Amino acid sequence: MGAALVWSLRRDPRALRNGVLVVLLGHYLLGSVALLTARSTELEVVTGVVLLAAAALVGLGLALLPLLLVVDGVLVLRRESRSLANALSLLAGLSMIGFPVVLVALLRHENPVTGALAVGLLTAQACAGLLFLAFATHTALYAWLARRAEARAVIVLGAGLVEGEVSPLLAARLHRAVTAIEERRGRTGGLPIVPSGGQGPDEPRAEGVAMAEWLRRHDIPAQDVLVEDRSRTTRENLRFSARLLEQRGVPEPYLIVTSNYHAPRAALLARRLGIDAQAIGCPTALYYWPSAYLREFVAVMLDHRALLALSGLAVVGMAGLAGLSLAAA
C-alpha cells in the first residue's frame, strides 16, 4: 500500500486517488498495530487507553460539529448572499442533527421496508463520511506538496469585483501570487503572471483588467503581466490562460493561485484539461471556509461519478440485503 501511494504521488500529486490510498494505508497500519499489541498484555492496555482517549476526542468533536456548522451557516447567510452554496454548512449541520431522529423513527416500525431504509441511510452516511475523509486527506496532503512546486508562470484566478475594484478576497489571491513569484525568482528569474477573469453581468469591467492594475501598482513589471479578460468559469480561466501563455512562448509547468479551499479542485480541473500546473491557495475568512469547502467537496464528487456510483451500489445492496433478511426472519 505504501509503494502504491509513493507511485501515485510521483505520477500526479493532484489525483484524488492519493487521498483514498492514504486512508487505506492508515486503516492497514491501524490493523497492523492492533495485531502487534495483541501479543503483549502491557502494549494492549496502553493501546486501549490511547484508543479510548482518541475515541473520546472524536466523539466530542462529532457531537459539537453539527452545532458549529449550524452557527457558521447562519453567520455566512447573514454576512454573504443568501444562496444554496452559502447555506451548505447550515444544511449539513441540520442533517446531522436530524439523522438520528429519522433513524430512530424508522427502526421503531420494525418491518422490512423501514429496516431496509434505515440500513440504506446508515450505509449512505458511512460512504459520505469515507469520501469526505479521503477528500480532506487529499487536500491536506496536496497543499503540503504543492507549496514548493516549480513554475514558469503564475495564473491568478479571478473573483468578483466590488464597484469595479479588486475585492479583499481577490487582493488576497494577488498577494499570494506576488509572494509565490518572489519565492521562485531566485530559481527561475522573473515569472510572467496572468490575471484571469472576464466581465460579469454586474461588473463595469473585466476582472483581469482590474487585477492587472493592482499588480502594476504593487511593483510587478508591466511586461510580466499578461491579461486574460474573457473567461467566465474556472475551466475557461485555465484554458484561456494556458493558451495565452503558450502563444507567448511560455512553457509549462504553471502555478495556479486561488483561495485555499478552491486550490485542490483547480488542480484537479487542470489535470482533466491536460495542463501541467499545480495550485496553491491564499487564506480565507474562517467563517466562510466551511461552506466553501463543502461546496468544493460536492463539486469534486460530481466530477468523480465512479465513486458516487460505487457508493450508490453499496447503499442499494446493503438496503436490499437488510430488507430480504428482515422479510425472511
Automatic annotation (TrEMBL):
Pfam families recorded: DUF218
Q: What are the recorded Gene Ontology BP terms?
A: Gram-negative-bacterium-type cell wall biogenesis; peptidoglycan metabolic process
CDD domains found in the cross-reference section = YdcF-like
- Record keywords: Ligase included? no
| Top-rank taxon | Bacteria
Instruction: List GO terms (cellular component aspect).
Output: plasma membrane
What region holds the DUF218 domain? 153-298
**Keyword vocabulary terms for this entry:** Membrane, Transmembrane, Transmembrane helix
List membrane-spanning regions: 20-38, 50-77, 84-107, 119-145, 306-328
| InterPro entries linked to this entry | Cell_Envelope_Assoc, DUF218, Rossmann-like_a/b/a_fold
The protein depicted here goes by the name DUF218 domain-containing protein
